Amino acid sequence: MYPELRVLIVDDEEEILIALAQLLRLDGYNVHTASSPITALEMIKGTKYHIILSDIVMPEMNGLELLTQIKEYDPLAQVIMMTGYSTMEITMLSLEKGASDYILKPFKEFKDVSKIVKLNEEKLKRWWESMRGNFK
Questions:
Q1: pTM
Q2: Which of 34, 65, 70, 107 has its CA 20 to 30 Å from the CA of residue 77?
């Protein structure tokens, strides 16, 4: 049995937060949202989130800084970066810092995001299975 997957979406654009949260809830995920990286960090310290979707360009703190802090706090969190301002350098830096995936905005379809979250869920399940096998 797997724990209930909790997803956190971090974006300063309210429309994105609402649309992604609705879509992922329809897919059966327990979804929480944060409109700032500072709020997200507070939430992460109080609750285990398995999958985190984060915008890169945000006020207060950019998504790459947030990614670094998330990974320091929870190295196993699957962090998916989202941005409308992509360069190869930003993409590579995100992956080097531990992002599990990268999505370009605007999304062709919000369902594409759902598919990427599902892939990260599968990664987590494989990890849980391997860990369970270590205790048999």
A1: 0.83
A2: 107
